[in-house]
Each structure stands twice: as C-alpha cells, then as structure tokens.
C-alpha cells in the first residue's frame, strides 16, 4: 500500500529562491503580513543563477546597485560583483528578514493544478529526489527565471563529437578542469564569452573567442567618478549615499537605452567609437566588433574596468569571426579556410529557455497551454487564476522588473482582501481577441530568444496586454495603475 502524501497549506506558494523569490517574499512580509507563505526551491541553496553557474569569473552583467534589493542596499564600492559575493549578499539578506526560514530546499514542483470550485492551487512536489508531497495554496507565484537549469542550449556544431580534446559548457562547468598552458577556444559572443576570456587568459596559453557574429562590448568602471563624488559629499549619511547612487544607476542606463531606441544610428556611432578606442591595432573593429544590429536589440555586454579589452591588448586573448565548417579531431575548420587548433573548446552558445521551471500547469485538470496565452501587464497569464509569473528586464537589472511585479501583486492581494475577492483571472474581451495582434514578450533578437518563441506567452499590441517597457512606468503602474481592467474579480460567496 502506497504511503499517503504529506499535505501542506499556505496562502501563497512561491516557486524559486533566486533573486525574484527572495524579493517577492520580502514584499509579502512587508505589505501582506497576514498571509502565510513558503518558498519551494528545487536546488540545495539560495541563489538561482549564481548558485548554478561555476565557470571562472561568473559575475553580474548589470550593476549591483539596482540588481541588489531596494530594501537592502548593496554596500560594496563596486558596481559589478562575482557570483560568490552575490550569493553571500542574497543569503545575508534572506537571513536578516527571516526569509530563509520559509524556504524548503530540494523541492521540485512537477504539476500545479488550479481548482475553480475550491479556489485553490494543488502542487505535486518531489522532495529530496523521491519523496512525494502535496502543497495547497490560494496563490501561486512563479519566481523560476526563464531558462532551463537542467539542460543548457547546445548549438549544432558539425563534428564536435569527433574532437579529441576537452569540450566544456559554462552551465555544466567542471571546476576540476585544468586549462593551464592550454589553447582555449570559446564559441560564442555573449556575456559569458566576454567574461570567460579575461578570466581564463592568465593561466591559459591563449584564449580565442570564435564568433559567428559580433556583439557590443562596453567597458564599465567598477566605481566611476560620480560615485566617488557622491560618497565624498554624503560621508555623514550612508542611507543618503546609497539612495543617490541607486538613483544614478536607475537614471543613467535608462537614458542610455532610451537614446539608443530613439536614435539608433547615433547610438551605433557612439558605441563604435568607444570600442575602437580600446582595441589594439592588431584587431580591426570590422568585422570583429561591428554588429549587424543596433545597440540593445540584443544584450549589450559590459566588462568591468575594460578587462576584456586589456586582455586583447596583452596578446593573451584574440577574436576570430567566422562560420564553423567542421570540428576535426584536432581542430576547428572555418568556411573561410582558416583553422584553429585548441586543446579545449568551450561552447558558450546561450541559454535554453523554459517557462515556470518546467512545471505542468492545469486548470480543473485540463492542460494550460502557455504559448497560446497573452500576458497581462507582463505579470499575470490570461485565463490562469490567482497566479503570477515574475519576469525582469533585458536592458536593465532583472531585479527592477521582479520588484515591480512583486509590488503590483501585493497591491492586488491587499485590494482583494478589502473587496472580499477570492479569485482574479485576466481575460481578454471578445473585441480584443478579434483585433489584438501578437507582439514578442522579449524584444531581443538573439538566437536563443527566437528559438523559444513557441515556449513563452505572448504580449499584445494594446491596452493592459502590452509588453513591459521600462522601470519608471512599471513601478508607477504597480503603485497607482489600473488593476481592474482586463481582470475578472470574483467575490466570495
């Protein structure tokens, strides 16, 4: 006879103990203290991305003053930080507010079913690899990020299986791998490749980035002159210092991205000039640093204190632009006829996108098909009751979008209690269904994003169904915006 499953009940279940889950938990405690909650985390510790990736140099690709929690300022005098420091910061933040006591580790959510009769979510969970548990809650908030933790995106590279050297992927990095005095080729041109090159080069014989197409790589000082000035002027008040530096990091990137979207040609020239000034004479900007797209149409890569370009200037690193014809047992042959002869190939080819950590969603035991649905305010899914999905920004710190989501949902929870509402369900009108055109949820044109189009919900062209735009607008909407239009509010009986 099978053992009876254990049953746990909460008002809210958060799935994921990364930056989004920790932040959402804080907002619940701050604004809805009457609600009980837990966090279900499939891994062994807090951290999400920063716990998963172990490759050399893993670091933030946006500033920590806005990537950090708004309720616990990042206090180090460096805008970019390594993964280990980010995890420590997250653990300290969670412990400071008792959030760590609410986390259940090694709990993987397999299925989540919403019952319209009981107004409850039922989650089937595997704990510690084999134990089956059941959780019930009124609300389900998915703080799972947007990519597959279990499986990296493997690009099709002809002949890679024949290579007699070592093949590594950043997502499954072997920390015991010895690359001392080895010739390393990194296949890819994104943030991971830009991070790996200067961090592998000191020990390796030589490191080459092999890219099919180039990216924008911009230098970012760990501490700029304006931050130094702010610290000097506010020596008497740490809270004011933190507030001003955070405002600076909210404003400057916002102005830069708006400039790039509004004046793409001018932005392209500005970026190109900055890149050219840092390249050694031996590496021409065209074709190696002359992208076919405009800034922020794909992610712009940032390197702290120009370490990427410093590595190129030292001669320990180089860039090769071309298409792989075939990987041979002892090298890489390009369609141009050039050949590379690495000891190690690192495939930094992007992330495999996965929605909601791979959990299966059902409503009244009927499958819920995420790609067919539109997303309300970039937060709630059409026809999915009492649920939200936390999604950040692609051109600003992830935490900004995550916090806008958390504050919006906490406001809705408070309003539901005030009005005696037990269920909220985003619904498009018949007119909207007839007239609304589909828009991408992510504005990036990156290959891994295009491949995932059929896995993610859709954004709409009008009203509450438009894709997110920028933090200032979204946080204003979270505080004061319309939370009734496009949503069915069901009162209790």
Protein topology:
Blueprint (H helix, E strand, L loop, with lengths): L5 E10 L3 H13 L5 E4 L8 H4 L11 H4 L15 H14 L6 E2 L2 E9 L4 E8 L3 E12 L23 E3 L14 E5 L3 H10 L5 E6 L5 E4 L4 H9 L4 H25 L1 H13 L8 H4 L12 E4 L2 H8 L2 E5 L2 E5 L2 E4 L4 E2 L3 E4 L12 E4 L2 E2 L7 E2 L3 E2 L5 E3 L8 H22 L1 E6 L3 H6 L2 E2 L7 H5 L7 E2 L10 H10 L6 E5 L2
Parallel strand pairs: 1-2, 1-6, 2-3, 4-17, 6-21, 7-16, 8-9, 8-16, 9-12, 10-11
Antiparallel strand pairs: 4-5, 5-6, 13-14, 14-15, 17-18, 19-20, 22-25, 23-24
Helix pairs in contact: 1-11, 5-10, 6-7, 7-8, 11-14
Describe this structure in words.
The structure is a single chain. The protein has 493 residues and is an alpha/beta fold. The protein contains 14 helices and 25 strands. The chain folds into 2 domains: 284 residues, FAD/NAD(P)-binding domain; 188 residues, FAD/NAD(P)-binding domain. The strands form 7 sheets. Strands 1, 2, 3, 4, 5, 6, 17, 18 and 21 form a 9-stranded mixed beta sheet that branches. Strands 7-16-8-9-12 form a 5-stranded parallel beta sheet. The longest helix has 25 residues. The protein is globular, with a radius of gyration of 24 Å.
